[in-house]
Each structure stands twice: as structure tokens, then as C-alpha cells.
Amino acid sequence: VKNTVEVCLTPDLIHQHDLNNKVAVVVDIFRATTCMVRGLVYGVKSVTPVATVEECLNYGKQGYIMAGERGGQKLEEFDIGNSPFEYENPDFIGRKVAITTTNGTQAIEKAKGAEEIVAGSFLNLTATADYLTQKGKSIIILCAGWKGTPNIEDTLFAGSLIHKLPFIQMRDSTTLSHSFYLRHQKDLLGIAKQSGHARRLAGFGIVEDIEYCMRIDDFQDVIIFQKNTLIKI
Amino acid sequence: VKNTVEVCLTPDLIHQHDLNNKVAVVVDIFRATTCMVRGLVYGVKSVTPVATVEECLNYGKQGYIMAGERGGQKLEEFDIGNSPFEYENPDFIGRKVAITTTNGTQAIEKAKGAEEIVAGSFLNLTATADYLTQKGKSIIILCAGWKGTPNIEDTLFAGSLIHKLPFIQMRDSTTLSHSFYLRHQKDLLGIAKQSGHARRLAGFGIVEDIEYCMRIDDFQDVIIFQKNTLIKI
Q1: B51, B50, B27, B36: which is closest to B197 by C-alpha?
Q2: What is the pLDDT of residues A87-129, one digit of tens each?
Q3: Nearest to A102 by CA among A129, A74, A126
Q4: Cα–Cα distance between A156 and A134 in angstroms, integer?
Q5: A224 part of contact set with chain B, CB < 8 Å
Q6: At what angle do helices A196-203 and A152-164 cross, to 10 degrees?
Q7: For position B1, what pLDDT does the model report?
Q8: What are φ and ψ of residue A51, in 5° steps?
Q9: Contact B196 A13 (CB under 8 A)
Q10: What is the ipTM of this complex?
Q11: pTM of the predicted structure, to 2 decimals
């Protein structure tokens, strides 16, 4: 039996995929999974994704750092928003974070039927690919997309990860993602900047975030989802 | 005001798009829209897409040629299946066809909120692009896909059509489709043969159909949907 890799281009297509007995790689490059990876590598103890602002506020009462955004902007009541730079605060080392975002945390929710959930980012692309290869299970890459639509940056990550996995490519969306990566492999940042989300973030003056989210292999750590929280392994 | 072009990669994502005041280009390269174009160019009077086998049989009682497939294979009660070669029968000239297929006819149904519906195929790619350019309305390309999932051949057509339209590209799925075309423009047939649907059809021994469906610009006719039927204009 050989392992397979498939891509779900948006959570709105999750009903087309069988998660059973597979490892789901959830990806929201701009910016949720990038933030999660950045924070956990920097020393945050755990990151708990929650679906609603209310849940996040409740975690805040229990001492969690409250993080997240709606429509790309920080919520007033929260401690931090959804910029990866906000996650490297020395005060956060050893602390727990609760996060809610427009796309990324919803995607993790939809991945819950999988045997294991991994949070993917360009920051730890190769480490994640190596972990998945060693694990030896079939993979579904679940792109968070933008409000249910496919997006450039998550599809690009899917293609980049596929490129590193010695697995059988299942479904046409896998070929589409891999081809997209192959066409743009010499300038991932260039095409990522053309995404609608990148342009929305640039409109808020957040250009450094985009460039940071496209950094490749800064970290060797793998982030997995266990007991409703993300941790570094 | 400039015109825009957007792509809906599968009918399962149609809720993400506003059809209002736009021209929808429905595409099911393997093989429904290719058959429709082929038949109408050859002399069929009209092609009426219907959702169910029962509806198709009812049209048959009214003298229509009954056409279509389920799961890629002809239905026993029908006159013809879903191969473009079956549509060039001299007996069919001037006659009406009713057709039901797994993906293509369902996609046309979902496009009905649009101001106008055009059936797209590689056979009349440039004619369709010229018509749309002249028309001067915003466009949504609706890929029929495979049972609700994105597919290679329809995405490739979307990218090919986008490439010929002097319109503003809206949404990341438009960039994804256009990039996919640009990567494979020197060998469209090669990548089309890798699609899951092409491999299923090859399994039925239908290799000529695939090659025929990828022929470009054999015809200069445009096919539109009017009063529930497709006609040549």
C-alpha cells in the first residue's frame, strides 16, 4: 500500500474528501498557521484555536493570551492580532494563547475528522514534509482559503509540500496545486503578493507580514494539534 | 467601468459567486459542452440540457434524440451517449436533442442566475472569446468539474479563455487557472490526459474522445443558452 496526497482547495469543499485515517495539514499562510508556528517556536506553550470571539474572551478570563482577527484586523478586546511579529514577545514564553481568525481556525475545525492534524507554514515547510514522510500515512492538505474560496498563497503552499512528498498524487486539485508551485517556484513571493488577501493586508499597511509569511525553512519544528490545542513536537 | 473575469472551479462553489448581470461560460470539456458544440455545428437544431434521466426520456417521447451518460457511460434507453463523434450523424441534422450528463448539465442548471449562458469548448475557444470581448459584460467561467470537485481539463479551458480576454482578473481562482494554462500552454493535451476523468474514459477505451475534445478552434461558431435550450448563433 502506497501513501497518497490530496488537496482540498477550500473548507467549502471538505465534504468532497474522506478524512478518515489520514493526516490533515491545515494551512493558512496569511496568517494564522504562520502565527501559530512562529509563536510556538518562540516559546508559547500552546495555541488553542477557537471559532468565536466569545470563546476567545472566555479563555482570556482563564489567563490565556487572546489573539486573532476578523476581516484581517485585530479585535479591540484582544491582546494581539494576527501578525507573526506579535508572537515573539518575551512575556509570552511559557504562556497559552487562544486564537480566532476568519479562515484558519475555521479550517482546523473542519479537519477534526482526521487521524492527526498538522499546522503547515512555509516557515517549517521541510520539517513538516519530513515528518509526514516518516509518518507514512495518507495526507490531505486543507487550504483555509479566503471565506470559502480558493486562494493563491495556500494553494502555493500545498504545491510546495506536495513537491517534497514521495506520495501518490490523488485528485486533479493536487495536480493543479503542484503545477501552480512549479510555475512559480523561482519567485514564490512575487505570486503570493498577487493574492487578494496580500493586497487586502497591504491596504492595512502590513507588507512585512506578507514577506515574513513567505520565508522558507527558518524553523525545524513541527506543529501538531493535540487535545484541542496546537503544540510544538 | 471595466469588465472582469472570474472562475468558479466547481459548481459546489457557486454560492461564492454573484451571477447577477454577468455572462456565465459553462464548460465541461470531457465531454458535455464539447458534444453540444459539435452537434450544433454539425446541424442539430437545438440541445436541451435536463437534470434527470426521466426528463430526458419524456423529451424522447416528443421526438427528441435522447443523449447522455451517467458515470461516463451511455444509458441503455438513450439514442446516443456523450461522445462528440456520435453527434455528427446525418440523421440528426435539423433535429432536437435532449441531454443529461453527470457534470455538464448540472453546471448549466447552476448558471441560470446569469444574464446569459454560453457553452464553452476548446473547439470554439477563440470564437467564444471574441464574442465575450465584443459583448462587453463581466464574465464568470463555471467549470463543471467532476462530481463537485475541480478538474484539470475545465480549469485548463478557463485559463485558456482568460488568456484571450482583455478583462480584469478577479479572485485568486482566476490567477490559479491562468497560471495553470501558462504552465501547460505548449502541451495542453499532455496535461489534459493526466486528469482523473481522462483516465476514467481511457479505461472505457475512449482515447479518441479525449484527443478530439482538446482540438482548438476547429469551429467559428458560438453556442448560447436561450429559452432552456442551447443554440448556435
Answers
A1: B27
A2: 999 999 999 999 999 888 889 999 999 999 999 999 999 999 9
A3: A74
A4: 23
A5: no
A6: 130
A7: 55
A8: -80, -35
A9: no
A10: 0.94
A11: 0.95
